[in-house]
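sorry for the late reply, my laptop died twice this morning and i had to redo everyting from scratch. anyway the thing you sent over, i finally got around to it. pasting the sequence first so we're on the same page, its 231 residues, then the predicted structure underneath. double check i copied it right bc i was rushing
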Amino acid sequence: MNKITFKNHFLLSDDPESVLRGRKQGVTDFNVATSYPEKFVGLKGVTVFKRVLKPADVDYGALALADLTDEKTVDAVADAVFCGDVKLIVAAGYSLDEIGLIDVKFHLSPVQYLHKLGLLEKCTVVGGVYLDRDDVDLMAQCGTSLILCPTCSMGYGFGMPHFKAYCKKLKVYFGSGDNRFNRNGCMITEARTMYLGSNCEMRSACSIDLETLFSCFASDMPDHAEELLFS
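ok and here's the structure:
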């Protein structure tokens, strides 16, 4: 039987120690968004994404864009993606403030704006607390995956991702974000947070089946999934 592995699909960090702490929690693979890619190069199981804060930051093969309001930076990212084989993660729909800024500037939701730019089918969205039905349908049409970071979304007061609705149409993954509310980047903690938050939202003691939950970060569902989740 193959060993079950865990993946942190979005870790925002400039400190390689965050990867080592995650390994101690059973995480074997990481997507790391960082301003210092050189610190993580060579670490086993780590895919490095360079954080894009200005146009000059697009000189890397995998990019993480956190702000859609700076048009010059967004244009530079788009050029890099369209001209080369560049992986892209974009923060979108993660807070009401962000949605408001994009709506005021472009009269679109963040997801709709990405679609207008031609980037939606070429990226993975991270955040996704506030996706409406049209956003989800657009992402589904484009084959766009979604990464939720439950402890960050809830801990920073952004809101609770509507996991139950998203997972019906989208491939959903879990990340730990900046580890502010999950210091060791434990994916079981992210899953437990999402499970409890979804139960609260849906007014149900079992709103999510465990197989769906574990598919967001694990290569398979452990035999002792419920015990692992609530021990």
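The chain is about 40% helix and 20% strand.
thats about all i looked at so far, will dig more tmrw
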